[in-house]
Amino acid sequence: MSKKLVILLFVIFIVVAIVGSIGGSYNSLVSLGESVDNEFSNVSVMLERRADLIPNLVNTVKGYASHETAVIDSITSARENLLHASTIEEKGAANNELTSALNALMVIVENYPDLKANQNFIQLSDELAGTENRIATARRDYNDAVKEYNTKIKKFPSNIIAGMFNFKEKDYFEVEASKTEVPEVDF
């Protein structure tokens, strides 16, 4: 009788250990997935903050460069695309589009010394620069969370649990290769 009890206790111990391991891995994957979603939300908040600054910046520039409608229209369009983007791919593409449009605006601003000295423009430019830094930080934090999550779902034994419960890889927030090129400075 005691031999059967030992075997039964051993089997129960093994089952509890397996269930505990599965539960722990599952809960870890859920937590990491939530971290990715939270960081994605942080990126979205920063991108929306950036988009909220754009109308004030555009209106300030319009007063000085009213004939530059193509650039202003491209900024407005890119801002709308950013506000309506929902996935990380859409937000990345819209962010790249808005960055390009803002870069074109800054080229125009260089041609208007009075505009560059305007207090509203300086304040908006500073706000935008601060927001750009926040976006970069939020994007880095998001990508770190994605890396941790993706690594977890690929490592053994959690990859088995990830497969059983249909955990899928998350996408990184990537910048277009052209945005990482160093600009040429020529005096």
How is this fold's topology laid out?
Blueprint: H1 2-64, H2 69-84, H3 88-110, H4 113-117, H5 119-154, H6 158-164
Helices and strands, in order, run as HHHHHH
Helix content: over 70%
Shape: rod-shaped
Number of alpha- plus pi-helical segments: 6
Structural class determined from secondary elements: mainly alpha
Outline the low-pLDDT stretches: 180-187
Radius of gyration: 25 Å
CATH architecture: Up-down Bundle
Task: Provide a descriptive summary of the structure in words.
The protein contains six helices and no strands. It is rod-shaped and about 95 Å long. The chain has one domain (23-174): de novo design (two linked rop proteins) (Up-down Bundle), CATH 1.20.1440. The model is unreliable at 180-187 (pLDDT under 50). With 187 residues, the protein is mainly α. The chain is 80% helix and 0% strand.
Concise description?
With 187 residues, the protein is an all-alpha fold. It is built from 6 helices and no strands. The N and C termini lie far apart (93 Å).
List descriptors.
single chain; 187 residues; mainly alpha; de novo design (two linked rop proteins); 6 helices; rod-shaped; disordered C terminus
